[in-house]
Amino acid sequence: MGVRRFGRVNWLGVRTLAAREVMRFMAVWQQTIFAPLMTAALFVLVFALALGRGRGEIMGLPYLEFLGPGILMMTVIQNSFANTSSSITSAKVQGNIVDTLMPPLSAGELLAGYLCGSVARAGLVAAVIGTGMVIVTGAGIAHPLWAVTFVLLAALMLGGLGILAGILAQKFDQMAAITNFIITPLSFLSGTFYSVQSLPEPFRSLSHWNPIFYLIDGARFGVTGVSDAPPLRGLVVCVLVVAAILMLAWRWLDSGFRMKP
């Protein structure tokens, strides 16, 4: 009793938790996959056709090409956060969080399992929206490796934030407040629909303190080859923020903060 007989890492447990997270959002794919795609299409329709018809180029790009990476990343961000936050909050509210805490899974293994679900959901959404974006705009992907890297960083960053939010929230109202007053404003005010270079001071400088700005800007560089900030700086900032978030999430899972009585 109490001895880990499956090696230093419980790979079976991690795979099982990851598979559960994937099956959880795939069971309601109309809500978790199809609905975000419809939302992205509506954003493109409204901003590109209604507002962007008479607009000139932004950063040397037609508005539709500029808008596409921002819409893609905003959808990835929202889905990554929703996957982990809803999983933990639902388990706590329904009282079955014990089913996740009792198996022989370390904090790192729990963290990896939850993040696998976020990465899978974000990757699926990004692949579908990215394919549609290429078809609609007729432009290719300038730097595919950069684009994939920033999509992965977005999934890890917002998946980690979703874990933190799920641990903090004790009911769905608290989770809705975190989403509406923190995550949504940060994603909308990060250059999704505009270039931050067009903002007056001090808003231009403040935008560079928003880590989500670097996610969107980095993805825009990967797709179009242009960006507001140096992509290498964005990569370093995102890696550091992801490391800090995941370290805090690991610490909270390890201590049972607001998870164990």
Automatic annotation (TrEMBL):
Q: Where in the cell is it found?
A: Cell inner membrane; Membrane
Q: Which InterPro entries does UniProt cross-reference here?
A: ABC-2_transport_permease, ABC2_TM, ABC2_TM_bact-type, ABC_2_transport
Q: What is its membrane topology?
A: Multi-pass membrane protein
Q: Which family does it belong to?
A: Belongs to the ABC-2 integral membrane protein family.
Species whose genome carries this gene:
Paracoccus stylophorae
Annotated ranges, domain ABC transmembrane type-2: 27-256
Q: PANTHER family attached here?
A: INNER MEMBRANE TRANSPORT PERMEASE YADH, INNER MEMBRANE TRANSPORT PERMEASE YADH-RELATED
Segments passing through the bilayer: 33-51, 63-81, 124-142, 148-169, 176-196, 232-253
The cross-references to PROSITE patterns, in alphabetical order and at most eight, read: ABC_TM2
Record keywords: Cell membrane, Membrane, Transmembrane, Transmembrane helix, Transport
The principal localisation class reads membrane
Transmembrane keyword on record: yes
Highest taxon of the lineage: Bacteria
Kindly indicate whether the keyword Transmembrane helix belongs to this entry: yes
| Protein name in UniProt | Transport permease protein
